[in-house]
Design brief:
Elements (H helix, E strand, L loop, with lengths): L4 E2 L8 E7 L3 H6 L3 H9 L9 E5 L5 E8 L11 H4 L4 E4 L5 H10 L15 E3 L6 H19 L7 H14 L3 E6 L2 H4 L3 H7 L7 E7 L6 E6 L1 E5 L8 H4 L7 H15 L5 E11 L11 E3 L5 E3 L7 H13 L5 E6 L3 H7 L4 E5 L2 H13 L4 E3 L17 E2 L8 H10 L7 E5 L3 E2 L9 E2 L4 H12 L5 H6 L5
Parallel strand pairs: 1-6, 2-4, 2-5, 5-6, 9-11, 9-14, 10-11, 13-17, 14-18, 15-16
Antiparallel strand pairs: 3-4, 7-8, 8-11, 12-13, 15-18, 19-20
Length: about 475
């Protein structure tokens, strides 16, 4: 199945793992024989989450593993074990919650494009779990997202990102078109072209379509700024160092699309990735320039380092033309969002209360936290321009994530829309969440889409948002 999961038929040679809830540890220990108690004491095991301990069999040799947890199913339940247990095959005793098994697969992640890991992850028998295919597909989608984010810009420029997207499309028999360079001007995508034209690697709009036209239409968009120098409003070195991750929105959107297609979710999916490098050259766009966008809204460039919203606005306007049931976009957009919710929560802006609540609940269910932020219309005055319809960035330092979302909202109008301002990077190691690129709000959105549009979806919803044929 993978190098971190195994099939049921190998269970007889697997080492057993038993979960011990922290609050029940003392009672469990009292029931063990003196030999086991001595082993546990020597290993200083107290059943705290993420820890484990070997215990002996009748022959006095290490035979099985006990692992601590807090009694709540999460990625952390066994997410630390794939890389902390010795290499080999293991099986989890008792009923296995899907989140715990998912945590194992996510905790087994390694980025090995440039250097091989010094060990293989331990492997877990999934057995006959009813959702083992979904678990494997979710892990694969997350690993894809992480790989794309962790790959440095020298190997993940717009052309490389387009190749990755086409590979996913081909795997799932989806249609993929890529509009490149000056052809973007012919199709009216002036903002995408302006942001990316200074790079030797031409800007492009990746457009993937998949699914039955009779199913509800859903559009997923990801910010694909493959490297962000800041443009002529250049970033300091400290701000530029991690900008390989500025295409984290595109990586997450592509991972979500792969999961949707692998799971055959009954929606009519459209994925769009505006892919650019915000570089510096004699052709770079400038502060004060006025850009023509796909929607016809003229935009004055207040700051060339507010480029993500510019490439998104063209894609959002194109998406809204389809009048889909829902538009989702992912972007590593603002430092303000990180200041508001930190690096481990996805900030969500949404123009539909029911959608927002549904995604929030799904995120809580999937251990994939999102937090709704206000689309406070009162701050729209900060985007006023004296020479154009709007400015791309507010001069004020206050409410930066909100003003960025308000800028984007102009391009979707009344279509239900959720915008995720994400870090797309783990700044510390946690069980199931190793340091490095991360798919934030991917599982939350997929869970929401599955609940809303899955096999049990209401027929009225399908009819309301079906593409006429």
């Amino acid at each position: 199945m993978s190098d971190y999961f195994d099939y049921e038929e190998n269970a007889e040679r697997a080492i057993s793992i038993t979960l011990i809830e922290s609050g029940a540890f003392d009672g469990w220990l009292e029931k063990q024989n003196q030999t086991v108690q001595a082993w546990v004491s020597r290993q200083k095991f107290t059943a705290s989450i993420g820890t484990h301990c070997w215990v002996p069999g009748d022959n006095g040799e290490p035979e099985r593993v006990v692992a601590g947890w807090n009694g709540e199913a999460s990625l952390a339940t066994i997410g630390a074990l794939p890389m902390s247990l010795p290499e080999g095959l293991y099986t989890l005793e008792g009923e296995s919650h899907e989140l715990a098994l998912l945590g194992w697969g996510l905790g087994a992640y390694r980025f090995e494009r440039y250097r091989e890991s010094d060990r293989e992850p331990a492997r877990l028998v999934l057995g006959s779990h009813p959702h083992r295919e979904r678990i494997a597909n979710t892990v694969a989608a997350t690993h894809l997202t992480r790989d794309l984010i962790n790959t440095p810009a020298g190997d993940m420029l717009p052309s490389n990102l387009a190749d990755e997207a086409m590979q996913v499309a081909n795997t799932h028999d989806a249609d993929c078109t890529v509009t490149v360079g000056d052809d973007l001007l012919d199709t009216g995508h002036g903002a995408i072209h302006a942001v990316g034209r200074a790079s030797a690697n031409a800007p492009r709009l990746i457009d993937i379509r998949w699914g039955n036209p009779k199913h509800p239409r859903v559009v997923v968009i990801g910010k694909g700024v493959c490297f962000d120098s800041g443009g002529l409003d250049i970033k300091p070195a400290s701000g530029m160092r991690t900008m390989k991750k500025d295409m984290g929105g595109a990586a997450t959107a592509l991972g979500l699309a792969q999961l949707i297609m692998a799971q055959q979710l009954p929606i009519n999916l459209r994925l769009m990735i505006p892919a650019v490098e915000n570089a510096i050259s004699g052709t770079a766009y400038r502060p004060g320039d006025v850009l023509n966008t796909y929607k016809g809204i003229s935009v004055e460039v207040d700051n060339t380092d507010a480029e993500g919203r510019l490439v998104l606005c063209d894609a959002l306007a194109l998406a809204a033309e389809d009048e889909p049931a829902l538009i989702i976009d992912y972007a590593t957009l603002t430092g303000s969002a990180r200041s508001a919710v930190g690096a481990e929560i996805a900030a969500m802006f949404c123009n539909d209360d029911e959608v927002a609540q549904g995604i929030h609940s799904a995120g809580a269910e999937q251990d994939d936290p999102v937090w709704r932020m206000p689309l406070h219309a009162g701050y729209a005055h900060m985007l006023k321009s004296k020479v154009a319809d709007t400015a791309n960035s507010a001069a004020s330092p206050y409410g930066g994530a909100i003003t960025a979302a308000l800028f984007l909202e102009q391009f979707v109008e009344d279509v239900p829309w959720a915008h995720f301002d994400i870090m797309a990077f783990n700044v510390r190691n946690r069980p199931g969440r190793p340091e490095g690129g991360e798919a934030m709000a991917l599982r939350a959105v997929y869970c929401y889409l599955e609940k809303r549009f899955g096999p049990g979806a209401v027929d009225d919803e399908v009819r309301a948002h079906a593409q006429p044929v």
